[in-house]
Amino acid sequence: MLAAIATALAALLGLAVVAMGITGMLKPQFFATFGIPGTGPDPVLDHWLTVKGGRDVGAGLMLLVVAVLGTTSLTGWVVLAATVMPVFDGLIVLRSKGPRAAAYGVHFATAAVMVVIAGFLFLA
User: Transmembrane stretches, by residue range (predicted)?
Assistant: First the structure.
């Protein structure tokens, strides 16, 4: 039972990251809601944010594939390894003087949830 719930959470995490990435690719200003300051009508920044969206789509698909096709242990390790992404996203927000609430309440909180999901996967 725990394995099924933890795997479903990992798959939902992957789907959420894919959805955020697609939204960000189509509308780069979407990433302003995640604490990236200076998002405005800037074509160069928009191109970089589109790249970030593509990275998110790829990362989300990897999580989804391993959740569907991998073992719970492998899925746990991949989810745990993937926590570096929201941690660094939060550090980028802080370094660029973005809102601390976004860094801690979105990015670092996401990393913490991912660690918990990985823990559940390891226990399953």
Answer: 57-80, 101-123
